[in-house]
Design a protein that fits this description.
Blueprint (H helix, E strand, L loop, with lengths): L3 E8 L3 H13 L5 E4 L8 H4 L11 H4 L15 H14 L6 E2 L2 E9 L4 E8 L4 E12 L23 E3 L14 E5 L3 H11 L4 E6 L5 E4 L4 H9 L2 H25 L1 H16 L2 H7 L12 E4 L2 H7 L3 E5 L2 E5 L2 E4 L4 E3 L2 E4 L12 E4 L2 E2 L7 E2 L3 E2 L5 E3 L8 H19 L6 E4 L8 E2 L6 H6 L5 E2 L11 H9 L7 E4 L3 H14 L1
Parallel strand pairs: 1-2, 1-6, 2-3, 4-17, 6-21, 7-16, 8-9, 8-16, 9-12, 10-11
Antiparallel strand pairs: 4-5, 5-6, 13-14, 14-15, 17-18, 19-20, 22-25, 23-24
């Protein structure tokens, strides 16, 4: 017998989970739901990452929820502000009363006989085991492995006499004031950390294997702030959100359709901002097209400013091994360091590491196809959430939350309702998240697959996705039943016997 019973169990109390709960109670306030959160606080990613300068690459107007206006002046905001916004949102709409913290999902098994999920969790300070029974389960736990970041396996780490730090586990006692710091990496985390640490460090070197496109962006949205000053809060927020969504979509399309032109503009911007054509040529000229990998934002050009003023520098080379006083490069040079920060990337892990099964048979995510990037083929009454990788996470997660609320609304109209994504035709061969970023390439074979056609596609295109998702025909790709399989079979057998 389950310890707790709910209509809907939501896993994760970050951006996706809070948004999913809002959309659920907006559409079906009569349904019972609970959010289980493995951490001890609201925030998800924004509660986990505490490294210097932590912020979003996306503007807050598209990252925040469309149903709760952002009231601050800045468009690019820090992690603390995002976390506070999430806590306040959950409190304002009563969502916080449905959250159970320090509760991690271990496994979930669907019973066709019961038309219910049995979800096993470990909870509390002693991490004792309990079970939930739920009609529908929605995983909003993101796609990062919160326990284990990516480890490139650098040789000689044990020989390094300094301090080695990974941003995912930033120590509160780290003192880098006046010291030589090397940040390994050139992605969003490194681009954030370098200028922040450079404010106190003696010098910071960003060591990258491959350059990244980095674009300066104002911290404030002057047009957006002007619009919000003359409109009511919600109308102003939605107007700016719509404007920024359109601009981000146009920017991405320009990068994909005119890669040479956009790469040239980015290169000129880097040369101008750093004050050095040579620096731009050597360290900000990637060998790939814009948005083949994720593009990085430098708010107010802070990274470029740190380089221009000499507080930071960039080295493009490969690591041979760590040595006592720093890092030996393949070129033969040694980068001396007191502190090395390994911003080398994250590992992907869908469903927070939980296992799922249907009638006792384990589900391998690699064998499933994603229905509208939010359900799994062959898995009943189940949803997951991933955001965009080329635009703000919430622009996709809110779209998913509204679709899943529609599906839950329909499937719970009867006590034993089930809905199962069912793929007809050729098997899928495309990655669900099709981009060449290292963390996606490394984990592509661990994730569900996709096709080129809806409802089994995710276009990474907000215009196409929103048109397809918001107008989704719920009878295409989904099989609906009103009783458990065992009941249907028994009824059919009784009918044949009577005949």
């Amino acid at each position: 017998m389950a310890d707790r019973t709910v209509d809907v169990l939501i896993v994760g109390a970050g951006l996706s989970g809070i948004g999913a709960a809002y959309r659920l109670q907006e559409r079906r306030s009569d349904l019972s739901y609970e959010i289980v959160e493995a951490r001890a606080a609201i925030g998800g990613t924004w509660d986990l990452f505490r490294y210097p300068g932590v912020r979003s690459d996306s503007d807050i107007f598209t990252l925040s929820f469309p149903f709760r206006p952002w009231r601050g002046k800045d468009a690019i905001v820090d992690g603390d502000s995002i976390r506070t916004y999430l806590v306040d949102t959950a409190r304002e709409f009563g969502i916080d009363r449905h959250i159970r913290f320090s509760t991690r999902v271990v496994s979930a098994d669907w019973s066709s006989e019961k038309a219910r999920w049995t979800v096993r969790v470990v909870t509390g300070d002693d991490q004792h085991e309990e079970t939930y029974e739920a009609r529908f389960v929605s995983f909003c736990s993101g796609y990062y492995d919160y326990a284990a970041p990516y480890d490139p396996g650098f040789a000689g780490i044990e020989d390094f006499a300094g301090r080695l730090v990974h941003p995912q586990f930033w120590p509160e006692d780290l003192d880098y004031a006046g010291k030589k710091v090397v940040v390994i990496g050139s992605g969003a985390t490194a681009v954030t950390i370098v200028p922040a640490v450079a404010e106190q460090a003696g010098h910071v070197t960003m060591l990258q294997r491959t350059p990244t496109y980095v674009v300066a962006q104002p911290r404030q949205d002057a047009i957006g702030n002007a619009v919000r000053s003359v409109l009511p809060a919600k109308a102003g927020h939605l107007a700016v959100r719509t404007k920024n969504t359109a601009l981000q979509w146009a920017f991405y399309q320009a990068c994909r359709r005119l890669p040479g032109t956009m790469a040239g503009l980015f290169h000129k911007g880097a040369a101008s901002a750093t004050g050095s054509q040579a620096v731009a040529d050597a360290h900000f000229s990637p060998p790939y097209k814009p948005w083949d990998q994720r593009l990085c934002i430098s708010p107010g050009g802070d990274l470029f400013e740190a380089i221009r003023t000499g507080r930071a520098s960039v080295v493009t080379d490969r690591i041979d091994r760590f040595v006592d006083n720093g890092i030996l490069l393949e070129s033969g040079d040694v980068l001396e360091a007191d502190v090395v920060i390994t911003a080398t990337g994250l590992s992907l892990q869908l469903l927070g590491g939980a296992t799922i099964s249907v009638d006792g048979a384990p589900v391998d995510l690699r064998d499933t196809v994603a229905y509208r990037a939010c359900m799994l083929s062959g898995v009943p009454n189940f949803a997951f959430c991933v955001g965009y990788i080329n635009l703000s996470w919430t622009m996709r997660s809110d779209m998913t939350a509204r679709l899943v609320a529609r599906i839950i609304d329909r499937v719970t109209q009867v006590p034993t309702g089930t809905v199962t994504p069912t793929l007809d035709g050729a098997p899928a061969s495309r990655p669900l998240m099709d981009m060449q970023s290292g963390y996606l390439r490394r984990s592509a074979d661990l994730l569900p697959r996709a096709t080129r056609q809806y409802p089994w596609a995710m276009a990474q295109n907000v215009v196409v996705d929103s048109w397809q998702t918001n107008r989704a025909d719920l009878d295409k790709g989904l099989v609906w039943t009103t009783a458990p399989t065992s009941t249907v079979t028994a009824t059919a057998s009784a009918t044949r016997t009577s005949a």
